[in-house]
Amino acid sequence: MHSALRVPPVEIRRRIEALQREMDVLGANAVFIAHRIDLLYFSGCAQNAYLYVPRVGEPVLLVRRHAPHAARDSPIAHQVSLASIRDIPERLAGFDLDISGVLGTAWDALPVREFGLFRRLFPSRAHVDVSGAIHRVRALKSAWEVERVAESARVCEETLDHLRDRARPGMSEAHLAGLSEAFSRRLGHGGGIRVRQPTEDNRSGWIDEGDDAIPAGRPIACGFRAVVNGYHAAGCRIFQEETGSRGDRRLVRALRDAHARILYRSGSGTSPADVERAARSEGCGWNIHGIGLELREPLEAASPVSSRDLNVCLVLETITNASAGRTFRLQDTLVVGEEGVRSLRSPVDRETGGGGGHPRLASPSSPPPRGEGTCEGMRLDTGIDRSQGEKNGDKP
């Protein structure tokens, strides 16, 4: 049994101060946070509430429901109950806060109707979008946050190992999803994968597109996404890798070797851009995105991580296509920091089979050699999730 998430007060203080520094750059006098995940991040509160953060001074948590739970969960000192949204200006006035300046809100997650309501409520002289600032703050994760992501990565890994032992040809994706949920819930997986946009895929377990059941006699990619105490991790492995045609087996080996080389070449890097450069050098399809309180987080912090206390968590996905349009892919959750790039997978992997397993891809000491097991000359899909790839620096 996992206890409910409690964010340490020092974490909340660090995040609030980072957001206030961003306000200096944007020229905002305050930020009003309404999005539930941003609220959880900056206040530690998962209740129905709002957070007002002035550029100078202490933030105010305005709680609609449930005030006792908010007081228990959040270290924010100034908390007030809110009977109606329309009472917000009056409640803030009680803290001698001037709400007539430039107000920032996260436009990427705020419905137009709510935005219009807040514009009418606040007599601000201007409104600015602080979505980018919030993403920049959230992208840099403390050691405490990395450990939360690592907990979820361990659940991913154990769940995928569990599925590997039980997967059989003809088993439907729904059957696999049921097995993965039943097993992972005992490990602390909370379900309810959080996404920022309603169009994003929020399934926990999945098999690759084009298949609704495990095929007989050929490899298939199977993935799982875990969320433990609010933080996500994702992984994808290839099952039945020694089956299928010689070409399929060769391509699976090539994909694994390419994935390992990306991790090896980016191992001394200190930014997501280093992982991107290593991925581009392989010629395979690839995608990376941030991960944390949401499944997909923008990699706004693309500059080198210069603090030993802060890191970036991301998901690396390596992709290639077999004949008949079938897709093979691998995914790992990585941590990028001043000390380099490392995977959150365990040191030993049964994935390649044989004698207790081979070294996992977490920290390869040398790159797999090029040769038969390479992606060169294969039919590759370098356009997977192209919109995200270009956003994070991939160019055709």
What distinguishing features does this structure have?
396 residues; alpha+beta; Creatine Amidinohydrolase, Chain A, domain 1; Creatine Amidinohydrolase; 2 domains; six-stranded mixed β-sheet; 11 helices
Task: Summarize the structure in short.
The chain is of the alpha+beta class. 34% of the residues lie in helices and 22% in strands. The protein has two domains: 9-137, Creatinase/prolidase N-terminal domain (Creatine Amidinohydrolase, Chain A, domain 1), CATH 3.40.350; 140-391, Alpha-Beta Complex (Creatine Amidinohydrolase), CATH 3.90.230.10.
Task: List strands and helices in order, with pairings.
Layout: H1 9-26, E1 30-33, H2 36-43, E2 48-54, E3 60-65, H3 67-73, E4 78-81, H4 88-93, E5 102-105, H5 112-121, E6 126-129, H6 131-139, E7 141-142, H7 143-166, H8 173-187, E8 205-207, E9 220-228, E10 231-239, H9 246-265, H10 272-282, E11 285-290, E12 310-321, E13 327-337, E14 340-343, E15 348-349, E16 358-359, H11 386-391
Parallel strand pairs: 1-5, 3-4, 5-6
Antiparallel strand pairs: 1-2, 2-3, 7-12, 8-9, 9-10, 11-12, 12-13, 13-14, 15-16
What would you say this structure looks like, in words?
- It is a single chain.
- The protein has two domains: 9-137, Creatine Amidinohydrolase, Chain A, domain 1 (3-Layer(aba) Sandwich); 140-391, Creatine Amidinohydrolase (Alpha-Beta Complex), CATH 3.90.230.
- The strands form four sheets. The chain has a six-stranded mixed beta sheet. Strands 7, 11, 12, 13 and 14 form a five-stranded antiparallel beta sheet that branches. Strands 8-9-10 form a three-stranded antiparallel beta sheet.
- It has helices at residues 9-26, 36-43, 67-73, 88-93, 112-121, 131-139, 143-166, 173-187, 246-265, 272-282, 386-391; strands at residues 30-33, 48-54, 60-65, 78-81, 102-105, 126-129, 141-142, 205-207, 220-228, 231-239, 285-290, 310-321, 327-337, 340-343, 348-349, 358-359.
- With 396 residues, the chain is of the alpha+beta class.
- The N and C termini lie far apart (47 Å).
- Helix 1 crosses helix 6 and helix 7 (143-166) crosses helix 8 (173-187).
